Amino acid sequence: MSAPTIEVRIPTILRPFTKGEKVVSVEATNLAELISALDANYTGLGERLLENGELRRFINIYINDEDVRFMGSLTASLKAGDSVTILPAVAGGC
Amino acid sequence: MTRYESLEASLGHTPLIGLPKLSPKAQAGKPAVRLWAKLEDRNPTGSIKDRTAIAMIDDAEKTGKLKPGATILEPTSGNTGISLAMVAKVRGYKLICVMPENTSIERTQILEMWGAKIIYSPAAGGSNEAVRVAKELAAENPDWVFLYQYGNPANTLAHYTTTGPEIYEDLPTVTHFVAGLGTTGTLMGAGKYLREKNPNISVIAAEPRYGEVVYGLRNLDAGFVPELYDASVITRRFSVGAQDSVRRVKELLEVEGIFAGISTGAILHAALGVAKECVDAGVGADIAFIVCDGGWKYLSTGVYGKDGDPEVLDGQLWA
Asked: Which residues form a coiled coil (chain B) (predicted)?
């Protein structure tokens, strides 16, 4: 069975890697696979997301709006129809 | 007792309101899943930030950092500034707020009304940029007192000693606590207190997802994680888009009659998601969430109207 196709939303700051595409699709069953697939298609993107095999500090990745850091990080699993969003850390405060 | 010696003394002890209509129906024979809204707009200046502001100023006075007549500097997208402005006025301090230039017009009007001076930071970069500008100004003006809500332990402590205990006292059966993630003070403080009382309580962060303009950071290292943030206090974290936040804030108004600010919509969206999971799993839950402020300061965004377009929020700071 082939891996499900996952939609990934790319933030403005990383769009130079995807030739300006806001949303790209890759096949993956977990987040680690998704990042390697992204890097395979868009050279250099993986390095902007990972550092020493971990998510970079200022990078947040969400599966269906939930932060992967609380879902097993790189081992977080993906299924068909999931949507992945990559965002830089930004402070709010009301 | 509802008599107080002063406005400041009326801080906190905000009502925790049941949401009988918005709470989802449990499966037949299964325990109830109930939502509870803590109305922080019932604080002296109308937001949860009164807790933070009063605690930070009290602490700075106690440690001698804040002398009579001093000038206070703070990066804020609004509510903290409004709270600080009130306390500064009452206690005789001057206040300078660094605020992104794209916050709603009401914020500026209210701050100026209380006598605060505003320095605008560029819209692109949002709160991150306001923090950066404020840090720069603090370095250039050593006589200004920089309270810095993002890294001031008094902010977290305020919620550890007030917000958390109030929720636990009003709802000892609380199973989930949902709040917004901004400075992270509310979640860190109240979340830590609640989990000390009962380690099984889930602490859930909801962050409003800012628009493209705000994400115009120069590089990824321009990202910003508040010094107060400690991921170990949180069990789950959601990023909620403008569309969902606006839909939920309108639902809260239409179904339960509560008129809240837009960041509350993001929090409610996460709370309802968790509530549905509990119903599906057939487990009972008492889910307490924070209503940060009322909707008054966001009317100019137009999103509350029938044809209100959540997209307009993409270019604005709306927490």
From this structure: none
Closest CA to B12 of B205, B158, B120: B158
Region B61-66: mean pLDDT is: 97
Chain-chain contact of A93 with B182 (C-beta, under 8 angstroms): yes
B11: left (phi over 0), alpha (psi -120 to 50) or beta: beta
CB count within 10 Å of CB B221 equals 11
Task: Name residue B75's beta-bridge partners.
Answer: B98
CA of A3 to nearest chain B CA: how many angstroms apart? 25
How far apart CA B178 and CA B234 sit, in angstroms, is: 10
Q: What is the value of pTM for the model shown?
A: 0.94
Q: How far is A13 from chain B (nearest CA, A)?
A: 7
Rounded Cα distance, B199 and B175, in Å: 10
Nearest to B220 among A58, A62, A65 (CB): A58
Domains and CATH numbers, chain A: 5-88 (3.10.20.30)
| Paired tokens of B200 | 């099984």
DSSP A3-61: PPEEEEEPPGGGGGGGTT-SEEEEE-SBHHHHHHHHHHHSTTHHHHHEETTEE-TTEEE
Flag whether residue B223 sits within 8 Å of chain A, measured between CB atoms: yes
Answer whether B132 touches A (CB < 8 Å).
Answer: no
Cα of first residue to Cα of last residue in chain B, in angstroms, is 32
Domain B8-42+162-308: assigned CATH number: 3.40.50.1100
Condensed to tens digits (0 to 9), the pLDDT of residues B168-221 reads: 999 999 999 999 998 999 999 999 999 999 999 999 999 988 776 666 677 777
ipTM: 0.91
Q: How far is CA B9 from the centre of its chain?
A: 20
Residue among B226, B234, B292 whose CB faces A94 most closely: B292
C-alpha distance from B223 to closest chain A C-alpha (Å): 5
Topology of the domain covering B49-146: Rossmann fold (3.40.50)
Q: What is each CA distance from B71 to A60, B8, B213, in whole angstroms?
A: 36, 20, 31
Q: Where in chain B is the domain with CATH 3.40.50.1100?
A: 8-42+162-308, 49-146
Let me know how long chain A is.
94
